[in-house]
Inverse folding.
């Protein structure tokens, strides 16, 4: 039974390795600016894990504009359900959060030709995480 | 979440409908509550025990890859990625730091030059300013006195309390604080982004079997491994159909 589970683990790992999951970051170059913005917003929120509630709430906020008035009751129920579920959230580890931070850097560098679309998100994120708000950085140091 | 098969049906529906954003939203939001409730062990157990869980996960990843521009709920995707990273299921080239620079050589060179110029600017700005020219007060000895003449010729013996420390002192303090910070950093619990992936490094330089099978297992009992050949998208779909 153990051997079977180990084999399944290796099989699953192999499937994931060959599924092209590594292209997610590199393919952000082909995203539209709005899609890239959503991507970076979610990534920034995932790395700022001081407030894990932001993870699912962002999902709802993204779709609020798509919902009509009749669905507002459902949305409020959705909010309350999310709030309950977040209380029992088993968040990802600090290592994964650090890895997502690396992903953020890579995504930013790969999309440096349209840095302006995500710059406001990045500067807010790094100002908060690096606590750079207390000092005034020069233009180059900021970048 | 995944083992219930709901996500599978919704993702299949999403794919069959040509990637409609609303369908994907409903799919991920329906299962988001369950996804945020589980822990790593239960995810691993479900992935290993239930074939529907594996197929749902792979279908979700496939839909993410094929319809990136239609996804509004990336936070859920990153959560799944984080869980997969914690389970060391992600490819090493995604997690480990690449040796090749993302920036082109020219841009990197220009950036380094600008940083060097910035360092020079900061050093010049941080240089201690020359001591201000002060007027002699009544308490200071006159040049006509013997003590005043001696201090004017040979300099004062002691530093005044408000005098700025020398450059050597500043450098020593800087080094001491740096070493103290380094020791403190080393004592912190490790949270490296590539923890667990160190043994899986250099995916492109070693064979798939070496990557898939840790060195500690090579000497143990033989475990049936998948073929070494890389799997194409068509093969992956065939595999999914078998699941």
């Amino acid at each position: 039974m153990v051997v079977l589970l180990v084999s399944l683990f290796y099989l699953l790992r192999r499937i994931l390795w060959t599924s092209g999951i590594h292209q997610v970051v590199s393919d952000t170059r082909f995203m539209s600016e709005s899609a890239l913005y959503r991507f970076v917003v979610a990534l920034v929120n995932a790395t700022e894990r001081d407030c894990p509630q932001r993870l699912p709430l962002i999902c709802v906020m993204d779709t609020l504009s798509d919902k009509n008035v009749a669905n507002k009751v459902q949305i409020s129920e959705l909010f309350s359900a999310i709030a309950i579920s977040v209380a029992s959230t088993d968040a990802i580890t600090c290592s994964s959060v650090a890895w997502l931070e690396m992903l953020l850097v890579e995504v930013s560098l790969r999309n440096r030709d349209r840095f302006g679309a995500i710059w406001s998100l990045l500067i807010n994120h790094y100002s908060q995480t690096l606590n750079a708000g207390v000092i005034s950085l020069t233009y180059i140091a900021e970048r | 979440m995944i083992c219930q098969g709901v996500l599978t049906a919704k993702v299949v529906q999403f794919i069959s409908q040509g990637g409609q954003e609303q369908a994907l939203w409903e799919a991920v939001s329906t299962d988001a509550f369950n996804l945020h409730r589980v822990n790593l062990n239960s995810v691993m157990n479900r992935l290993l025990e239930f074939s529907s869980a594996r197929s749902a996960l792979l279908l979700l990843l496939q839909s993410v890859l094929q319809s990136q521009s239609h996804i509004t709920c990336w936070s859920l995707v990153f959560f799944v990625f984080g869980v997969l990273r914690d389970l060391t299921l992600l490819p090493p080239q995604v997690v480990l730091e690449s040796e090749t620079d993302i920036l082109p050589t020219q841009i990197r060179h220009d950036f380094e030059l600008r940083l060097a110029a910035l360092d020079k600017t900061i050093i010049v700005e941080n240089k201690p300013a020359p001591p201000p020219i002060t007027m002699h007060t009544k308490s200071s000895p006159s040049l006509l006195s013997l003590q005043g003449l001696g201090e004017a010729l040979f300099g004062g013996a002691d530093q005044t309390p408000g005098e700025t420390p020398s450059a050597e002192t500043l450098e020593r303090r800087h080094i001491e604080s740096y070493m103290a910070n380094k020791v403190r950093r080393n004592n912190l619990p490790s949270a490296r982004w590539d923890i667990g992936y160190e043994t899986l490094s250099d995916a492109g330089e070693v064979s798939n079997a070496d990557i898939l099978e840790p060195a500690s297992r090579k000497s143990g009992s033989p475990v049936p491994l998948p073929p070494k050949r890389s799997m194409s998208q068509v093969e992956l779909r065939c595999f999914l159909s078998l699941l």
